[in-house]
Protein 1
Amino acid sequence: VSRQLKEEIRRGFAGLEDPLAGLLAMLESSSDWKGKGHSLGYYITSELQLWIKEHPAGPQSGIQLKKLQARVLGILSQCPANLLDPLISIYQLHTADRNYLLEHVSHLYLKGSYKEAAILSMKLKLQPDQDVEKMCTPLLLQDKANMVEDYVGEYPELQSKLLQILDTWCEPSFNIRDITRPYQGLSRCKAEKFNRRTLSKLVFRLLDRFNVDPALCPNVINQRHLRTLNYLFYKRFVEKTMTEENWADHIQSTVGENRWLQGHLIQLLVRHCGERAAARWARHWGVPVDMLPPGLAEQLPEPHTQERIEEVTKADNYEDSKKKDYYQLPIPRENIHLLQTWEETLQCWEKVLQPGQVVGIDMEWKPSFGMVGKPRVALLQMAVKDEVFLLDLPRLLEQAEVEGEKEKLPRFMQKLYSDADITKLGYGMSGDLSSLAATCSALKDTEKQQHGVVDLLTVDKQVDGLSPEHSHEERGARQPEKGLSLLVQHVLGKPLDKTEQLSNWEKRPLREEQILYA
DNA sequence: ACGTGGTGCGACTTACACAA
DNA sequence: TTGTGTAAGTCGCACCACGT
């Protein structure tokens, strides 16, 4: 749009006695303002906004402005979105009578223009005087969670209130249909997608985004932990890829002192591994007798040392039988160093930071399993040609804290990642780095300035695309191996043993199996 | 289980040419 | 000059595959 047009517009304003009324007359007269984007109306309106800034007229007479405001509201409900801000500013709607504005918005709402009502409310900052539940429900049904986020974005009280409402929707006895029924006729309403699963996802997003106390949403938290329990049982008894020890550890930290979860755990135990094991766990927490399924209570006082031993040896045999079929690093055990002091670590760094060095990098952390917050790296592995270093990160960082040398690790990592003459080798390294950033806030921007990094995940993808003849010749049965393990199987003949992948990497001392896996 | 990063598809804008 | 219709570009979302 030419400068000419703008000048012409301005001349027009100067000629009018009351430009504000003039603009309204213009907008009203052309009834169909379907012109999206940069229409003439938009240009004129935004020019007027600038013009007013340059020619601050004295305060308008109150009554006259009120009349104009009444008229502009009629336009607001029809005009394109990009006119909203200029119009609100020009006619100073934020100074208008709130009750009047609220009434107008509620009119929009009753018309079924829920989105428009919400947008206008946000622009006019009307949220504190509105009912969060009423305003947000139709938006949520229309899958507009983002808008809901924005709607409560600046009001912590509304955030808490909204989260509490969402949590009550997740109560076991609550019927979500009660919420959706009034809005049945809603366009693109996805009532069937509106279940507890998506709700709890939303709740966690909001909890994270607004830093609200998770205790406000007990139902959602409980359900999340229950899902974790189900998953752990699946891993242990269906997929059979988790050892008794790792499984028990995760069960323990998921259930904790929560009676409700303890009850569910007992039921799962009865189903998957019999009443004796269930009774043992029930005893362990002192679960009240009336919470137990009938028939289980009698087994409580039973001595259980014998079964325990039995079970552990069974697990051991199960381990041994499988172990030989997996690939193992051809590095003698004495060249695998677990580093727990800075003195040893500095020696390791000296070897790693050689020009031209090639170093393999990987990290381990405790699986999140529904815990809030991002995981912290518990072990940092680095390998050169025939030596492996395992850095006990929690311990080293703690020591550095005491000695006031917090920058030690970040400085090393920066140097390592930015040096193009040192090749960093890994598999799916972006995940490692993001966990590392959560562990050590000084390393947030390491990702941007990295040189000499080779990620075998991407290499694998490219090579795999060129030579697809591997896959279906060997056997009709699909290989369960995937990811790095599959790659190792292709290149080195045998897959990897991933049993320790989901173990508790924060627990010390590390078990020998964990060290070998690392 | 969760978190992340990449991918593909559809919805939604934006840009532009053209007819009225 | 305006509004319309089509083409191109963005954005967002669901999905998958992988990590712990």
Protein 2
Amino acid sequence: MDVKDRDCNNSANISEEEEQMDLRRGPWTVEEDFALINYISTHGDGRWNSLARCAGLKRTGKSCRLRWLNYLRPDVRRGNITLEEQLLILELHSRWGNRWSKIAQYLPGRTDNEIKNYWRTRVQKHAKQLKCDVNSKQFKDTMRYIWMPRLVERIQAAAATATAAAATGGDSSTTTSNTYQLNNSINMTPTGHVGFPPATVGGAQVNTIATPENSSTAASSDSFGNQVSPVSDLTDQYYNNPVPVNNIQNQDYFQVNQADFSESLISPCGYFNQGLDFQAMEQNNQSQWMESGDMSDNLWNAEDIWFLQQQFRNNM
DNA sequence: AAGAAAGTCAACCGCCCACGT
DNA sequence: AACGTGGGCGGTTGACTTTCT
């Protein structure tokens, strides 16, 4: 049924009483979920206000739409944000900022709401711990130069472990999982484009992120013929000019690569002298971070802390 | 064990834009 | 051109859960 043709038999005769009936708010009940799912499965979605009426839901159209898109939709993926997804979120956020829906397009099954929540609860939390604004250049570059490479390193390590396990006939479930994430989260585009062949980072393959910009045969114009400004993002350099992750501690790497950018970037080491109060961070937060049980979900793990501290001391 | 604090996330709100009339 | 409506978006809230003291 064409949703455009949807029309409740009584939609034209909705009584004022019904019109003014108090709408439900707050958490959805199982019955409401069933009603919404059943209705959409037979009639399709769209025209949310009339859909809400016709489905007999005392909800606003917006509420129905939100419930469907963020929770009931069959392809919605739940659970922890994977390392690959974290990397992708950081990468895309560095390009587009708080364009959550746009970012969500590149993470199949994830909703803009979920990504937004992830950003606010995890990323902003760590910016707070570093005593800098999440939108500050300091924090952004710290993410680019330190955090994202560390994520890549961890992804590689997980992949290597999984590969080894598979080679020895061990449980390959992890391998399958990681492969799935890489192929489906990072290398997929909203329009179904396939990304460029995998680049290598530190000797391991990492799929190049395919965006409308770079999936259109690397041209400088988009599918509408509009000029698309090249993404001058260090992560692109990172993907396209693989450098062993260990070299990230080498200031020369940054200085050499920065030459490609019109805007000179301050190396992360510079920040250790300029702004980030790592001593305070160490005093205030290290114990908390170090003692955190689940490191997999933390942006900074024990190694990161150690790494940051080394950088700090080397630049004293 | 219990209360407080912090974290998480579903849901709501208000604004904006596109589109039809 | 003006208006109404539907839908999408980012920001915010608040209930619930988890962790800490």
